[in-house]
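New to this. Explain these tokens.
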Amino acid sequence: MAFTGKYVLEKEENLEEFLKAVGIKKEDLSNEAMITDMYQNDRFRLTKTVKDKTWNNQFTIGQESELQTEAGETFKTTVTLNGGKLKIQFPKYLYTAEVQEHKLIEVRSAGAVSSTTTSRRMM
């Protein structure tokens, strides 16, 4: 299923434990009222808005891109898309995203600790 759409946070699982594992304070990354906007074409655009903070990453699948973490740090990585699952290796964790029945399922994994965020597509 295509990623293009705006998604509103529905639920999150194990976020606090994940944030602790990667050294981020809960106050620095509260997903409360998070909106995710994805656009899929030749280039992907992934924009996240939480309260008054917005960050935007653009990339082409299979090509090295410079991306930004939620904390504003830049890094280079090659984003992949296999079996409908988007994969981005951030400096401290692996991010995957896929769309299932109009829901965006995002998983962040740092070693044995994972957090799952489920957002529903806004119609």
